[in-house]
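Backbones bend. Our protein:
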Amino acid sequence: MTLNETHPEAVAGVVDRIVERWRRDPTCMVQILREVQEACDWISPEAIDCLQTALKVPRTKIEGVAGFYSFFYLKPRGKYRILFSDNVTDRMQGNQALLERLCNTLWIEPGKVSEDGLVSVDRTSCTGMCDQGPGLLVNNRAITRLDAERIDEMADLVRSQTPLDEWPAEWFRVEDNIRQPGILLGLDMPPGDALRAARALAPSDGLAASNMRSWREGLPSGLGGPAALLDAIKRANLRGRGGAGFTTGLKWEACRNAPLKSGQQRIVVCNADEGEPGTFKDRVLLTSYADLVFEGMTVAAYAIGAQRGFLYLRGEYRYLLEPLTAVLERRRRDKLLGADILGVAGADFDIEIHLGAGAYVCGEESALIESLEGKRGTPRNRPPFPVTNGYLDQPTIVNNVETFAAAALIALKGADWYAGIGTQHSAGSKILSVAGDCARPGLYEYPFGVSIRQVLADCGAVATQAVQVSGPSGVCVGPAEFDRIIGFEDIPTAGAFTIFDDSRDMFEVARNYVHFFQHESCGFCTPCRVGTSLLKNLMDKLHNGCGSPYDFAEIEKLNHLLQSMSHCGLGHTACNPVLDTIKKFRPAYEKHMKQQDFAPAFDLDRALAAARQMTGRDDAAAHIVKEENA
């Protein structure tokens, strides 16, 4: 039951209960705001008044945090808040026509709230359902496999104000679509086995008192225990699976060796904010391999001496919150988490889930930490790095979901076994999120070193024109490059593998990605805030037929500005999809150029065309010209 904006006393009671559940801790601001909105439909002025009193923070800070995240609403957005996923694959699957169909049926404009305040319909960035789209979120719950029939039925359910729990359960079904399992996706590991294997690395007395002190205080522990585990992670040559590819063992070692101030502890953070368009592997790992991920986090805690961990889950995966919470509870009951892990006194580590609220930039580790601390997700200046000054200024490791799963596998099967898989420079396997123009979209796991061509053959792709590897911030490859390999020595990737056949306009693909970057810029630094807007305007100018060769030179200038002046990686990579497609698919751009000399973006005649058509003046003008020529 939701409260809406009516009863201030009821709102105050709800806010107080939520704040109490989060320990009246202002660093949990994002979670508190999320739960207030879920209870009250939006974050009302009355709710903010209560939060200001309960958390003892300025109203401006509360409003500033709420205003940063796209899934928070400071104005009513309707009982049903429908957000169509607007990733390029959703567009390829017809989401635009479906959005227009729903809006026409409900008599509502996109981006607006209906006159009766019942529903709002808008667009959002990729929802991580590219293998089963088009998709949307309704009140942050994912619906997949949209079609016209489903849209019409949805409109009826909205108009009849049917509760979401009574909507067809089939709509909310999210499939794993594991097409090719490997060493991770094919693993059937009983919970706790990786922890027991890590324990076996300790001296003969197991996790003895000296090693428990090592766990709590991060002290050296001789040749066994945490030191042996760290050595195994380094010898396995595990590198981060979030895209950057930093050596995991070195990161953990730096965190373990970082000095602690009085009252501090080390922190383990799992980055499950996979917002890169086209990526959905972490969704499946958290759905069907949650024990493996949590086990990897606990292995990391033992290695660095941490007692507290966080899973930062992207807001689009809200539906996973309750199942993941249940897994954590079961692991606590089984002594695999919490106090005295494996029954050994002092082996303490626990995990708390924090949910994002629609901010792509929070996939960057320092922005994620800011969000964990209840702030706007603005990336930090570095150095200092999180391994020495992370969550609440404490030594912190931030690793990707797949990285922690791989760490558990290394603890279970050994460093030498893992290092023997893949290539010399890229050990282990990589999970690819394959989507787009192919017969079998889904997850494919390969040892590093697999070629683009092999993946295309396995997923049933034909007449492929291009593959975007690692999402918009990655690289676009054409047919001449299909023998290149997935690996840190050639094409590193966070996991996205989006396929475009020869029917697709690669200019429009790049334009969609540019719109994504402009929408997701956090606005902190002027080069990115303004530069991504200018880039969007240039691509829209080309789309509208007003482009010229001069615009290519402007894009090059913008790229130089964004790469040299932007605060974080979003700005650094914003021009990548444009520059790649200009270089490799130039004809796709040239067909949008109607001018060889400079042309302004604003065309008065074009702007008035719709009005002339509506008033019949085009027909009248044509009739006059015909009479004059006669």
User: Anything to note?
Assistant: Residues 1-5, 203-210, 219-223 have pLDDT under 50 and may be disordered. DSSP finds 26 helices and 15 strands in the chain. The first helix runs from residue 8 to 21.
